[in-house]
Specification:
The structure is a homodimer. Chain A has 10 helices and no strands. Chain A is mainly α. At the A-B interface, helix 1, helix 8 and helix 9 of A face helix 1, helix 8 and helix 9 of B. The first copy, chain A, binds a DNA duplex through helix 3.
DNA sequence: ATTATCTATAGATCTATAGATAATGC
DNA sequence: ATTATCTATAGATCTATAGATAATGC
């Protein structure tokens, strides 16, 4: 039997992501977790704290990985491939439809400025790798700012495809979306980006 | 001076899209529209009716256009180019950040099944044109189902870029995203798709 | 008479706290 | 004594209705 905290967080994740934060009552969370409404407050100080526990680190894994990649000596197309595939795999691995909380209006509130800032930093890493790739002639497009925004938007759009459950595993989603990303950027040598990018992923995986 | 209905809808659009449906009170809407809370009910039967007026037709323009395109005799890459550019232009033309309501959890409620179904139909048109393009050798990818989902996700991701206001007009957004869409699909002849697709847009525009 | 607003308020929530209770561990 | 729950409830909302009021148009 899972701990009460975990049961509360699971119930809240399911409810917040289907009905939204404001549309979910503490009573609904509690009952889904098998408790009475006031018992939540023994484990969490407030409804907002429950939400913060769920969304406080949404971008963290991809951001950490991206930041580590910035100090790796590898071609920019490989770096971007690795980041894209990691990011998408992480999104597809999220439990419930928790990724849809990326777009919860409450996340834009001042209390969650830190979360929003992590998103901005991740986007800027996409931008950096795209720009470096264009400069190096690895991506044959001419507007890295616009293209990297589209690419970032594409990854965020992934969370709305959680209703699509073809048989693909999260890691297959990662590499396939990364392949399409290389097409979108008109990669000069997508096969090289793929193999070098996948190699960077392996390094990541084994260093855990 | 705009009509009270319009002022209410404008206020509600701004509030719903920044705070969400459940997070917006009828009092907040009324006061933003310059009325007292109960006066809303002279114009609308319920809070939900206000929401329905805003989101009831979100996918309609693109869907209508897409359905008209299905009976046009043109190469599939041109059809897809036209649909993509139209869709994105329409999204970038929405007032406020109303497009973010595409993802409001309330839209998944049974009352809005008709809206959700329009989205599904639009997605299936994307799918149809993509499949036809692959069959005709116009798109050099091998999984039209997956690719068209990504493409559709990309357009939906556009609404989250409403904070990005580079100088581009909605129609520039349309053609540029369509250009990137052709890359994503590995179009065999993107320039042809662009010129034929743009021509289809012109026909559309002038027949209004 | 109709239109468009208002004040007042009913009735249903909702979050969070107070304080009782039972079980566990020293 | 501490831990984890419970019942009861305070106090603040929130949606929607009732019914008064003022202005407009026949």
């Amino acid at each position: 039997m899972a701990s009460p905290e975990k049961q509360i967080l699971d119930a809240a994740a399911a409810l917040f992501s289907t009905r939204g934060y404001a549309g979910t009552s503490t009573r609904a969370i509690a009952e889904a977790a098998g408790l009475r409404q006031p018992s939540l407050y023994y484990h969490f100080a407030s409804k907002e704290e429950i939400f913060a526990r769920l969304v406080g680190h949404l971008w963290r894994p991809a951001l950490s990985y991206g930041e580590r990649l910035t100090s790796v000596d590898a071609p920019p197309d490989a770096l971007l491939y690795a980041l894209l595939s990691y990011d998408v795999e992480a999104l597809r691995s999220l439990p419930w439809r928790i990724g849809t909380l990326y777009f919860a209006p409450e996340l834009r509130a001042p209390e969650f400025a830190a979360v929003a800032e992590e998103r901005v930093r991740l986007r800027s890493i996409y931008r950096e790798f795209t720009g470096a790739g264009v400069a190096a002639g690895a991506f044959l497009i001419d507007d890295p700012g616009f293209a990297s925004n589209l690419l970032f938007g594409l990854t965020e759009g992934i969370v709305h495809m959680s209703d699509i459950d073809d048989g693909r595993s999260p890691s297959q989603w990662g590499v396939e979306v990364a392949d399409y990303g290389m097409r979108l950027l008109a990669a000069a040598d997508p096969a090289a980006a793929r193999s070098a990018g996948s190699a960077l992923r392996e390094v990541q995986r084994s260093s855990r």
